[in-house]
Structure formats: C-alpha cells, structure tokens
Amino acid sequence: MLFVVSTPIGNLEDITFRAVRILSEVDLIAAEDTRHTKILLDKYGIKTPLSSYHKFNIKTKTDYFITLLKEGKNLALVSDAGTPSISDPGHELVKAAILNGIEVVPVPGASAMVTALSVSGLDTDKFIFLGFLPKKPGKIRKVFRGLIEFDGTIIVYESPYRLIKTLKFIQEVLGERHIVVARELTKKFEEVLRGTPSSITESFSNREVKGEIVLLINGGKALENSNPA
Ligand code: SAM
C-alpha cells in the first residue's frame, strides 16, 4: 500500500495519531527532504528508514518505489509540510501507483490553503486554489483576468519576495478587494492580515515581508470604496 500522509505546516503537534502510527509501521518513508522529515520522526520516536523523493529524482525514484510496492512493501509518502501532491512532489508516485494497481490510502491532516481559508472570513462555500502563480507578469495578469467574474474566494501560495508585486497586479486587474494575507500559520510569528491590496502594501511599508504566505482574494466585484473590512 502507498499511504499519502499529511504532516504539520509548522507546529509539529499538528499531526494525527493515525499519521504517527502509519509512519512508524511502514517499511519506508518517501520524503521530499529527509533531513527535514527526520526532525518530525525524532519528535515522535519513529525509526522508519527514509528515502528522498523530490523534483530532481522523481523519475528514478518513482520507478524504485513502485518496484518496492509491487514486492509487497508498504510505503508512506510525505512532503516537507502539509499534504503531499498539493504544490509539492507526490503526484507522479500516486499516479504510477494507481496505474500499477497499488492501493493508495490517504492519511489526512494539515494543508496551508485550507488552514488559511478557515480563518480568512472570506467565502468558504466556493473557492479556487491556484497554487503558486506563474512568474511572468503577463501570465499573472492573464490568470487574474480570467477570474474577474469569479465570485468565490481565490487562494494563492505566495513567496514573501513577490507578495507586494502580486498585490499590485491584483489592484491593477481585479481592483481593490478584500484580501487576506495568512503568514507563518501555526508558527511563532503567525499573522493574519485583513485589508485591501493598498492597505496591506502600506502595512509592509516599514517592515520586511517574511515567512510562508497564503494569499486569499475575495471574489466578485471590486470594492466601490477602498476601505478594508
Ligand atoms: N503541500 C503543502 C500544503 O499542503 O499546504 C504546500 C507546499 S508549498 C511547496 C509551500 C507553500 O505553502 C508556501 O510557500 C506557502 O505559500 C504555503 N505554506 C506552507 N506552510 C505555510 C504556513 N505555515 N503558513 C502560511 N503558508 C504556508
């Protein structure tokens, strides 16, 4: 069996009893960064061997893990944080396992997008998750243009180095809207900022943007008046 195991997005206590048990019981853990996952395993006294699985060895390692699974071994797949496959490695292995008739079992837990949405105060009935935006300005504009009429919440994974630029694109294409910046969730410097592209840009005018960020944008029409909620 291949277990797809979610791990914490910061606070190491955010892991399920079941995830700890499965990680202890499988024959091997395929991990995006073995040193990173070792910290989690040490905290819970898990001794299972680790094998790296990241974007530079996906092809060879997918074949290797499928061979082990076909031999009857049980494997767990984890990424550095949250749910594997969600803007993280994992999809190739899951796909290959399915094609080879291997059972794929989810072991659910944290994911930054859902965690951020749950405290955003924005519409949770309908949302679209874009993962990371493209790098080129033209492509970013195109993505946002396609969502001008979308009336649910738009969720994006964003780098601290690009946040301010992205807020500019939002203002330019989507107009002033309610925005939520969920930063360093579950960690020491956790912060959830609510405002508009301009008010949030202003709030970072005298400090550096740092840490891991989920950016959420209110869908529907732009605000007539640019005051934050
Ligand atoms: N697989 C992960 C998940 O399920 O959320 C996402 C992995 S993706 C490579 C990493 C991105 O997720 C970060 O750049 C950031 O946008 C977001 N992220 C991860 N942890 C976060 C946290 N603690 N607070 C805010 N955003 C986080």
Describe this protein's structure.
The protein folds into 2 domains: 2-107, 3-Layer(aba) Sandwich (Cobalt-precorrin-4 Transmethylase, domain 1), CATH 3.40.1010; 112-217, Methyltransferase, Cobalt-precorrin-4 Transmethylase, Domain 2. 34% of the residues lie in helices and 20% in strands. It is built from 8 helices and 10 strands. The strands form 2 sheets. Strands 3-2-4-1-5 form a 5-stranded parallel sheet, with helices on both faces. A 5-stranded mixed sheet has the order 6-7-10-8-9, sandwiched between helices. Strand 8 (179-183) and strand 9 (191-195) form a beta hairpin. Helix 3 packs parallel to helix 4 (91-99). The longest helix has 13 residues, at 58-70. It is elongated. It starts with a strand and ends in a 12-residue tail after the last strand. The mean pLDDT is 95.
Keywords:
229 residues, alpha/beta, Cobalt-precorrin-4 Transmethylase, domain 1, 5-stranded parallel beta sheet, 5-stranded mixed beta sheet, 8 helices, elongated, binds S-adenosylmethionine
Helix content: 25-40%
What's the arrangement of strands in the largest beta sheet? 3-2-4-1-5
Q: And the CATH topology of the largest domain?
A: Cobalt-precorrin-4 Transmethylase, domain 1
Bound molecules: S-adenosylmethionine
Helix and strand sequence = EHEHEHEHEHEHEHEEHE
How many domains make up the 3D coordinates? 2
